[in-house]
Design goal:
With 94 residues, the chain is mostly helical. Helix content is 56%, strand content 0%. It has helices at residues 37-53, 58-93. The protein starts with 36 loop residues before the first helix and ends with a helix. Mean pLDDT is 80; it is low at 1-7 and 13-29.
């Protein structure tokens, strides 16, 4: 079941986490708050690959790290929302 199938399970837009600027390093154009789970996960994978590959400046590495932290939070919020919906559905069956 994809995040798009779990309406309302998305990140809380009022969380105030803000977006870490990607500075173009990761190629992301969307705000962290508007990303779906799959988009955030895929971009996070890309960020990790770039960091593991090395060859970036300290400033670029820091920007990638910050973007990765923001993306991980987005993924966490999606998963928390999905878990809450599943728990509610299971509770309703009892």
């Amino acid at each position: 079941m994809g995040a798009k199938d779990v309406a309302g399970a998305g990140p809380d837009s009022g969380s105030g986490s803000g977006e870490a600027g990607s500075g173009g390093v990761s190629g992301a154009s969307a705000s962290s708050e508007t990303l779906g789970y799959e988009q955030a996960r895929d971009e996070l994978i890309d960020v990790v690959r770039q960091l593991e590959a090395g060859g970036t400046t300290l400033e670029e590495s820091l920007a990638l790290w910050e973007r990765g932290e923001a993306l991980a939070k987005v993924c966490g919020r999606w998963l928390e929302g999905a878990r809450a919906r599943l728990d509610a559905a299971l509770e309703a069956e009892r």
